[in-house]
Amino acid sequence: MPHDLILKNGLVVTPQGILEGGVAVDGEKIAAVGASGSLGTAKREVDVQGKIIFPGLFNPHTHLGNGDDVSWQGLDDDFARDTKDFAIGGVTTFATTTVFSKDPLVQCVDRSIKSGTGRSFVDFKITGVVLTPEQITEIPAVARKGCLSFKFFTGYCGCQAESLGMPASGITPDMFFRACEELARVGPPAVALIHAEEPYVRGILSERMQRAGKSDLVSWAEHSPAWAESVQVYQYGVIAKDFGVPMYVVHIANAHTVDFLVYLQREGYPIIGETVVGFLSSTAPEVEAKKLGTHAKIQPPIKFAADRDRLWRGLREGTLTAVGTDSISYSSKYKDAQGFWETRVGLNMQEIDTLPLLFSEGINKGRIDLATLARVVAENPARIFGIYPQKGVIAPGSDADLVVIDQNKQDTLGVHRMRGRADYSNWEGKPVKGMPVMTFLRGTLIAENGEVVGERPLGRYVAGQPPRGLV
Ligand SMILES: [Zn+2]
């Protein structure tokens, strides 16, 4: 019997190494991986002519429905529109947070799954945003829906916390303690995601800078000292360790935190480190020189060259195990409507730029190799979110989520490539080399050469296996 699809004559990136050959697909699954001559025949054969056959990316950190339009309608719109850029960029699965809401978390997760179904162009998972003590009690019920990741905005207090729907005190250690009790009941891979960035001192420093009339991205970087991140990693990490709950620190920005993680991981703390594309691909002086203003205002801030270099080294040595984007569906109109300090934080959607940036800044500059890149953008996030080996790997039996990367193709980043809401790129005009040219979702070609193929969104919610505590 011929296979449904064969990609041949490529460099296949597998956990066992890089293999000259191809991938055979039957239905939605990978049937075989091996030398091109060993794969047999197929109804459709694609000769990729030496290009890279890479696992579809799993972006663990996005916030659809929380940008220009913070609402369920906004989430529907973002799923329908922004996920086109995910498909073009080779991101075949992603996790998005629920819309910030004090409603029962079970309802929020149900609504999010419904929102993506029939609208998303790629597969998705949901991370439940926990804002209130009531929502903490719902963790086991939410986990039964296959939603095993829970986000805690520990880095916020005062009006910033209230603007997200939290008490003014933010997420306090007692709330996190209660959450760990519930997460321990569910068992791994149920995971606590924290935004670590001590908010009280940050408040003093930001007020001082505003009084001094500063409104630049270097001041923004300096209002959040490196220790603000690591001090919360420790504070919440010791609680998580007590319960044996994996704690995933999102968007690590500082060299100091990576150094500290080396120590904590050696001591057996179940702490997972993520960093984001923006921190790997830019520095505060660079974005300030480009006068990006609010467009590059993310929290924690984009830091300095020494931080960026340490983040890359953290990925290389395995201290940092995942790369996300922390993207939010913002337009420039929204970002430009208020002053520098007033505008909400976050970078806009960058999924279409993710692979070209990581390839150009990582692979081409010798900061990371292909196998490591595959681990941090696909395999590790899939493991952490409990959907490995269904997702995140090129192996027989796994979903046929594949991206063909032309390692020699040069292009220029910019808004002309984007098909979602995003109408600006923080890397506008940046020359890159290494472009995703074909994306397959569960065996179906969904994007080719910068365009979506087929009008119908095929993305599905991925529940994964229920943890032991629930069966
Ligand atoms: Zn985030």
Q: How many helical stretches?
A: 16
CATH class descriptor of the largest domain: Alpha Beta
* Global geometry: globular
Kindly give the count of domains.
2
How far apart the termini lie comes to 38 Å
Strand content: 15-25%
Question: Would you kindly provide a written description of the structure presented here, covering whatever features stand out?
Answer:
The longest helix is centred in the first third of the chain and has 18 residues, at 72-89. The protein has 16 helices and 18 strands. The protein starts with a strand and ends in a 19-residue tail after the last strand. The radius of gyration is 21 Å and the shape is globular. It is 35% helix and 24% strand. Strands 1, 2, 3, 4, 5, 15, 16, 17 and 18 form a nine-stranded mixed β-sheet that branches. A nine-stranded parallel β-sheet has the order 13-12-11-10-9-8-7-6-14. The chain has helices at residues 72-89, 105-116, 133-137, 139-143, 158-163, 173-186, 199-211, 217-222, 226-243, 255-266, 277-281, 284-289, 305-317, 332-336, 351-363, 370-384; strands spanning 3-14, 17-26, 29-34, 42-47, 52-55, 57-63, 91-97, 123-129, 149-152, 191-194, 247-249, 271-276, 320-324, 327-328, 402-412, 431-441, 444-448, 451-452. The model has no long low-confidence stretch (mean pLDDT 96). Helix 1 (72-89) packs across helix 2 (105-116), helix 1 (72-89) packs across helix 15 and helix 6 packs across helix 9. It has two domains: 3-54 and 396-452, Urease, subunit C, domain 1 (Roll), CATH 2.30.40; 57-384, Metal-dependent hydrolases (TIM Barrel, Alpha-Beta Barrel), CATH 3.20.20.140. It is of the alpha/beta class. The chain binds zinc ion. Residues 61, 63, 250, 326 line the site of zinc ion.
